[in-house]
Amino acid sequence: MSKLSIRNVEKTFPGRNSTAPTRALVPTSLEVADNDFITILGPSGCGKSTLLRIVAGLETPTAGEVLLEGKAVSGPGPDRGMVFQSYTLFPWLTVRDNVCFGLRERGLPRAEQLAIADRFLAQVGLKGFENHHPAQLSGGMQQRTALARALANDPKMLLLDEPFGALDHQTRELMQELLLGIWEADRKTVMFVTHDIDEAIFMASRVVVMSARPGRIKCDIPIELPHPRSYKVKTTPEFAAYKERLTEEIRVETIKAVTMER
Amino acid sequence: MSPLFTPLKPVAPALRTVLGISCFVLFFLGWGIATYGGFVKPLFLASPGDTLTAGIALFREFGFAEDIAVTVWRVFAGFAMAAALAVPLGILMGAFKPVEAFFEAFVSFARYLPASAFIPLLILWAGVGELQKILVIFIGSVFQLVIMVTVIVSGIRSDLVEAAYTLGAKRDGVVLRVLLPAASPQIFEALRLVLGWAWTYVIVAELVGASRGIGHMIIDAQRFLDTGQMIFGIFIIGVIGLITDLLFRALNARLFPWAKGR
């Protein structure tokens, strides 16, 4: 059985002030196996974030359903940890209390919260920053905290919506290695949305390419690069072959999207 | 163009202080020239020296300290009552749109009712005692504050709320542990502003049917055409306003250090 089943999910945003409604997603189906690392790759406005937000329960689909371990998703919940593109740490809480947030909502004893928080903060390399406030951290550190905060809840799945999109290139590559390392260690099921081809190939066991508006799944490519992967994989011929293929797929869609905007 | 007058360019702290003080100096200088130079009759405007003498006499002979205490007490009592009602109501209105829909039109209407116009009615209802003065301040502040708090809570970043939901927060958790802390610094700032307005209402309330208070003293002084006392009374209000303003700012920086520079 799949970990996650997306069944004929579609989304149409109602039009505002007599503008036509926007069809963000045609009926879309996708099965995600346990321990899979799926990246959803597509040009901006292809509905990839909408799809992820439906899985998170932050948007309700116009039709269709999402099943997590066979149970229908009806709203957001701690079983699907999410990291957003924008910095969503709570600015009034310290790094440690941010990571404790979900545990506290669940009513865990404080001592247990702290033990779990410190373990995940160490895992994302933020030991020593426990008592900092988000405003004192760089963007990369904030997203690492957000990742620790999502992982601390021990979710069944991790959903990431272009989490490294606002970071500079070098920091982004380090973050990819960090996330991949965490995944290689405990193989949590991951759904990762991005428009960066290298990022999509490097971390994924499957790359799902989405087409321009209205969004639909165009192709689904398994990435058979060996694990553990280091950054060096990015310069191998195998990687280049995947990149060439995906570049072609995406390019067509981007051109379509651009001409539609005109 | 002078580099000092580049738009939005900050000014050095020392220069800032000097400029701030210069404005006061110029003000007193202009006042001194107008009065000592014989350009304005003492009947209409007392000189700075006469004002100071009148002020000292007020404290020594007329128990002005008690007037100040009475006025300060009225302001804080009315303001505290307004805040105790307006802050929770504003938070509920900001968080829950049906509550907002129910109250918003009425509060917007009530906000334009001038507090001073209620004085005759309030005297009829509550007599000329303390309650009447406090109610004027309450009416003058409460509706403004409700609207301001509602706007502040409505404007809290929705991605923070979404993040809280994906971490397992339920409705109450989102209101108490996301919206409330996120809005606190701005609510505090709104309280500071409205407290300033409360000072204008208390004086109006004290001009009618009062036997103590700064406003009452000013009316008394008018009977004897003592412009020195009148000006001194107005000055004291300004000084108290300045002090409470500074206290509020200091408290805000102390309570919400994480919000600094936002």
Automatic annotation (TrEMBL), chain A:
Residues 4-237 form the ABC transporter domain. It comes from the Bacteria. InterPro entries: AAA+_ATPase (IPR003593), ABC_transporter-like_ATP-bd (IPR003439), ABC_transporter_ATP-bind (IPR050166), P-loop_NTPase (IPR027417). PROSITE patterns: ABC_TRANSPORTER_2 (PS50893). Pfam families: ABC_tran. GO terms for molecular function: ATP binding; ATP hydrolysis activity. Keywords: ATP-binding, Nucleotide-binding, Plasmid, Transport. Belongs to the ABC transporter superfamily. This is ABC transporter ATP-binding protein.
